[in-house]
């Protein structure tokens, strides 16, 4: 799983900012990225005004750098493209280590090996369940960062990111399934003889397609053409991820 962790750490830094992976899926505020012009409290950022997480970026003159506006806002290169690259870990085979799967990616690899074929990939049951547990953990961390630091800002003007709307509802549905997966993993690690391929696949079927649909919808909402409806170029240019 070392290569999985490295891939996720790299993708998290580049597409979502500095996410903190602490015990019990908590987030340490000292290293969490900030959207807007603000900086973490323990760092000095010359020339930048501190902005509380979740607040809209201030309308101020930006740096001279400009981005092509003919087809997209620059945010599509930051949020949408960044989200897309992170999401590909869960959906595209190039983001998952070879010994785990070769189909659509991490989630589908876990699904395909539920029948016990993980043994053909050099894994025993404990290794397979640990891989599923790591996937669950990183999905949880990814969504925690979104809900605490990205969605509150976007929700100021974009209804689909509000607490009772599309994306949060999708998160809730996904994490109901992830909670069930966690319970199964804990049970089977303690009692390997009780492992059931049928139960594992049924559990994954309960949230897998919801996850993939959510990932695609999220990226679409962050594309430049959609962002133009809610944000000016100056505001978009100050959203740092």
Automatic annotation (TrEMBL):
InterPro entries: Dimeric_xanthone_biosynth, Hemerythrin-like. Residues 44-53 have a biased composition (Basic and acidic residues). Residues 128-219 form the Hemerythrin-like domain. Residues 44-70 are annotated as: Disordered. CDD domains: Hr-like. PANTHER family: EXPRESSED PROTEIN (PTHR38048), HEMERYTHRIN-LIKE DOMAIN-CONTAINING PROTEIN (PTHR38048:SF1). This is Hemerythrin-like domain-containing protein. It comes from Phanerochaete carnosa (strain HHB-10118-sp).
